[in-house]
Amino acid sequence: MQKDSSAHLDSLRITWLSEPFFLGIPIIDLQHVWLVHIILELEEEIVEAEKNDSDVNVHVSFRKALDYVAEHFALEEDILEHFNYPNFKEHVQGHRRFVERLTEKYYEAKNNQMAALGILQILKKWLFQHILHDDTDYAEFFKASNLDLKSYCNQILKSGKYPISKEQLLIYQNIVQIDTTSISLHEQSIDTIQEIRNIWKTYNLSTGIPIIDLQHIWLLKMIVELDHSLKLGDGASETFHKVIAEAIEYTKDHFGVEDKIMRYFRYTDVVQHMNQHKRFIEFIKMRNDEYKLGNPRVGLHLVQDLRNWLLSHIALEDKKIGLAFESRVRELSEFTKKLHQSGEIGISREQKNLYKLVLQSVPDPLD
User: Fold this and answer.
1) Contacts 24+ apart (CB under 8 A), 13-22
2) What is the C-alpha separation between 318 and 312, in angstroms, rounded?
3) How far apart are CA 316 and CA 338, in angstroms?
4) Rounded distance, CA 163 to CA 184, Å?
5) How far is CA 306 from CA 35, 86, 147, 299, in A?
6) 120 vs 189: CA distance, rounded Å
7) d(C-alpha 91, C-alpha 252), whole Å
8) Spatial CA neighbour of 159 closest among 190, 193, 196, 198
């Protein structure tokens, strides 16, 4: 195991030094090293699977890639926006297109091997095209502008908005071998609202329909809380039980709202959309059964299921509803307001507050 780990680090160091990836911005370089680590780890897993004629655990690889983009893109966009980078809009558009392509490769694949190879191809292309060109452009902009980048990076690190793991820091220290005292772990804390906001923006989940977006953000809160619990290994069983109960309640409330909206406004694809809702209910039931049988990996399975749902259903199918009714948003708002007043849909104060906190400076979804 030690030998494999040493060989992996050697490959990582060779790849990092073979191209001008180094930007001189420690927090960004750390995340770029982590991307190279993810790529090499996936390559090694594919080679090992082919050698042993076994299957690649593509779900874990996909999740790692998604975790990476949500954390990295949010941090990078924060820095670029703060310093008024001239090509900020184009850079963000590139990020959104990358998430779409990564998701397409994963869901279009007919088997795990194809999905793994597709993800690997997209990640490598991103590494050698985007980082070596687009990211180098903003690094040169910072140098030419003589901006105090270090102070701002320290400030956002201390805020806990973009947490750095011990593993990420150790790998970065090993590969880059420079002073990392500016990247401190002990001062960081988990910022759940910021993490939800990062995923929401990076995955481009907004439908433009306030009541639906509110409920999607509530689902995202469940995912983030369960994910944190699993990573910390603290009360995971209790959190799982809570998330499962909330997910069951979510299916009744959220799917009921979408069903009423689609039928009232005569959405053309209502039958297929409702069939997908049935599949969601089925996997929630399946994970609940696994939990009752004592499966130790059920929490991880549920997080994977819910994240897949974000990208396969919410980011694709639910956005179609938003596009179909974008000229009728006011009418839609009036309709959902009446449903709420009549007691047909219930929205808690906590859900409304979370919606406002995540989206920042938005009106009450039922006003």
Assistant:
1) 13/174, 13/175, 15/40, 16/175, 16/176, 19/128, 19/132, 20/132, 20/136, 21/127, 21/131, 21/132, 22/176
2) 10
3) 27
4) 10
5) 23, 36, 41, 11
6) 31
7) 39
8) 190
Residue 221 · residue 354 · CB < 8 Å:
yes
CA 74/CA 203 separation, integer angstroms: 11
At CB < 8 A and 24+ separation, what contacts does 226-229 make?
226/299, 226/302, 226/303, 226/306, 227/303, 228/190, 228/192, 229/299
Count Cβ atoms below 10 Å from residue 351 Cβ, excluding itself. Answer: 17
Task: Annotate 16-47 with DSSP letters as a single string.
Answer: HHHTT---S-HHHHHHHHHHHHHHHHHHHHHH
Which residues, at least 6 apart from 260, have a Cβ–Cβ distance to it below 8 Å?
339, 344, 345
pLDDT tens-digit readout, 69-121 = 888 999 999 999 999 999 999 999 999 999 988 888 888 887 888 888 999 99
Indicate the residue type of 157: L
Task: Please give the model's pTM, rounded to 2 decimal places.
Answer: 0.78
pLDDT in tens, 290-324: 888 888 888 888 888 888 888 888 988 898 999 99
Hunting for tokens 């639906």 — which residue is that? 212
Other CB atoms within 10 A of residue 297 CB: 10
Tell me how far apart the alpha carbons of residues 5 and 2 are, in angstroms, rounded to a whole number.
Answer: 5
Four-point Cα dihedral 168, 174, 180, 185, nearest 10: 30
What does each C-alpha distance from 34 to 164, 322, 340 come to in angstroms? Answer: 11, 35, 46
Give all domains of the chain, ordered by start, each with its CATH number. Answer: 2-176 (1.20.120.50), 192-359 (1.20.120.50)
Q: Rounded to a whole number, what is the distance in angstroms from the first to the last CA of the chain?
A: 59
